[in-house]
Amino acid sequence: MNNIERIKGALSQHNLDAMLVTGMSTRRYASGFPSSAGALIVTKTDAYFFVDGRYIEAATNKITGAGVELITQEEGYEAKLSRVIADYGLKTIGIEEETMTYAQFMRFDKALSAELVPAQALLTQLRQSKTEAELEKMIAVQRIAEKALDEVLGLIKPGITEREIATELTSRMRNHGAYGNSFDPIVVTGVNSSMPHGVPGDTQVKDGDFITMDFGATLDGYVSDMTRTVAVGHATDEMKKVYNTVLEAQLAGIATAKAGVPGCEIHNAAAKVIADAGYGEYFTHGFGHSLGMDVHEAPNANPANKEPMPVGAVISAEPGIYLPGRFGVRIEDVIYLRENDCVNITKAPKELIIL
Predict the structure, then answer these.
(1) pTM surpassing 0.70?
(2) What's the CATH number for 3-128?
């Protein structure tokens, strides 16, 4: 079953006659076709992908399960959608309220006779559980990131800058086949490593520094995400204690992670280890987030998520300890949740490396 068929099957559950898919990643999820423009409408029996002349040939060749039609100045999205509404007698159409702009909504709401209903949840729920084919793509792009890390570790020495390391990671992921970054790499060293989302700058690596590298690649529409913290030259006993505490916390969270367990319980398993070691106030974010076609998806393994995690969810496992003005440590893998356990798809070593 392709994703258009999955959307068809979910319409009745959400009391909808059709779903209008306009977000960039959701269009690709549903149709399998990457584009910066277009709209897909899925009824209970049929689907139509509307796109302009830049993409019409490629979309026609790529998309199966939906009719592909050209958008023109004379017949735009509103006219195409109005025809479908009339042909199928549509009364309620779901929209992506989290990605559709207010201007888009007002334009469609004025032009279309059907009621536009917030229905982001329909697509969010479908995307929570990855298929085997999706998982294979995520594993492939993760291996690309790991190859880049392995090469970049050999370049790190005192004097290299955060920005240079980030550039090398990006370049080497592309060299190994990535389409691009899944997000701008986070590379922070020394005191900067206490900032979980610090921006790489011209700070130079020094002997005795921690370096935290959080990065990922994209390939075939799917992303990777990983973080490794390494030391240069030597590490103090306190640095080693913090590092090992984070690693122990990550392993505790991973051991708890499986389908049916609320996201907050996974987070709490890791947070307890950090709190028991005396660093509770320095773990300032959730244990993990889902990823797939986007680097941040639902559901999350954080204190706010009381809902059971679904079978097939792919989530990050990334506890951290951040001591302001001193140093920080984060270790991040990606795990796939099964009914009775989880599988770690990240293979890069995570014991403390001292370069």
Answers:
(1) yes
(2) 3.40.350.10
